Structure formats: C-alpha cells, structure tokens
Amino acid sequence: MTGYTVLAKLIGIFPELNIYRRFGASSAGMLLFEQAELAHREAELRDITAELQTWPDMSLIDQSWSKLNEAEDESASGYLRDKTLEFHAKLRQYQEDLLRIKELHKTRSPAERSLSFLRRWLRGPGRGDDFLEGYEADPWAAGREGDLVGLYDEQSDDLLAGALSKLGSIWHRFVGYRSRPTTDIEDGVGRIWKYEHRHFVLLGNLICVVVSTAVPTASTLILFYVDDMVRRLQLMAVFVLVLAFVMMFMLHCQRVEVILATASFAAVQVVFLQGVNGTRGSC
Prior knowledge:
Elements (H helix, E strand, L loop, with lengths): L3 H10 L5 E3 L2 H28 L6 H6 L1 H5 L6 H31 L5 H12 L24 E3 L8 H7 L2 H7 L22 H29 L3 H22 L4 H28 L1
Antiparallel strand pairs: 1-2
Pfam family, one: DUF6594
Keywords: Membrane, Transmembrane, Transmembrane helix
Organism: Exophiala xenobiotica
C-alpha cells in the first residue's frame, strides 16, 4: 500500500526529488496584505503621536524609554506605547517574511529529469499507483513548473553534461536495465536505476579533451594541404568559430578568455599560413 510514507522514503533515498511548491502568488499576496496593514498602522501611530504633542509629559516620554515603558496602561502614553509595540511586532514579522521569501526565490527550479521521474513514479503501478487525489496532486501537475523549487541543488551550468544526461534513458533502454537497480522491490519504492550526474560530467570532460585536441590538429593538417588562399581563409574562420563555441559552451570560459584565445589561435594560424607559403615558394 503506497502513500506519503513510501513517497517520503523515496525522497529520503533520492534527495534530488525534494521538489515542492513555493506558492509564489500566495506568498506575494501575504506580503501585500502585511504591507497594507503596516501602512495603516504606521498612519495610525503617526496620528496618535501628533495628537499627544500638546500633552505636558510628551517631551519626557520622548526622551526616556523607561518613562514610556512605566506609563500606566490606561494613560495616553501607555496607549502610545502599546500601539508602538504592536507596530514593531508586525513590522518585524513582515521583515522576516520578506527575507524568507527572498531566500526562497533564490532557490533554483528542480531539474527537469528529476521532476519528470517523480511524476512517472507517482503515476506508475507498483510505485505511486496514483495515490494522490484532488488538490493534493496539484503541486506536481503539468503547468506548475514555474512554481516549483528543488531543495537539492543538482542544476549544473555544464550544458554538455546536461545534454548527455538526457541520453541516459536511451542507454538504460538498451544496456543499463541489465545492471543492478539502485533500489529493488523489497525497498518498497519499486525498481529504480540511478545514474550519477558526475558520470556525465566526466564523459563531457573527455569529449572536451578530444575536441580541444582535434580542432588545432585538424586545422593545421587541412590548411597545410589546401592551396587556394580564399579557401584557407574560409577554413580558418570555421576553425576559429569551432574553438570559440567549444570554449564558451563546453568549457564555460569567461568571455574575455574566449576573445583572447580565439584571437591568439587566429594569429597562430596566420603565422602558420605565412610559413607554409614561404616554404612552398622556396620550393
């Protein structure tokens, strides 16, 4: 029998499935109401203070917190003190809510692969069996992606590794299913295979090494055997573009580094072409 207990166990095993709604609209509504209440309370406090300016002891309580604190509850100064403390309490709560929601919005959205798996698990027979009904199923429903947060930050700026990880389902369909699953039937959450993201990062690094070696090597060989200067310049532009693409989107280099590297690479190619022309001219 599946339910929240089994779902909690699944999330405990795979922390990347800690995916919840942020209730962005409701949070904004709460802040708006608190802000409106504070605006009214601030205006009320300002009016009370203005009315008490003519009171003989106002200068004393304005210069001494202890006198204001010791004022009798039924007195005008006691009323001012109570209203001030109420305002401060509401203001403190408002500021705490502001900071909490600010931190909440800094949290990244969940990885697409994790959200997709969680949805499949909730629907799958022998897994979630669609135990969530009505409004309780809404948090992970289609169309809620923009209102979800992932507490386990697995998002990566490595676009190549992210693209390779999407091929994991193809790998599993033909090869991976033969391996031992991360969880099995006796674990209570069904048979699940997990492929670590670091493996895709490692594969991406390997591809980058191969491409980074192949680009200058291929450019040198091809430019050496091409005689037409216009074709050489065209090929040189293509190789510079490939190098810039690799550095920007595979290696995630800074823009300045990409500009300097491509400029240096182009300069080396120009020198190489001059050397090739000189060598062939002397022959």
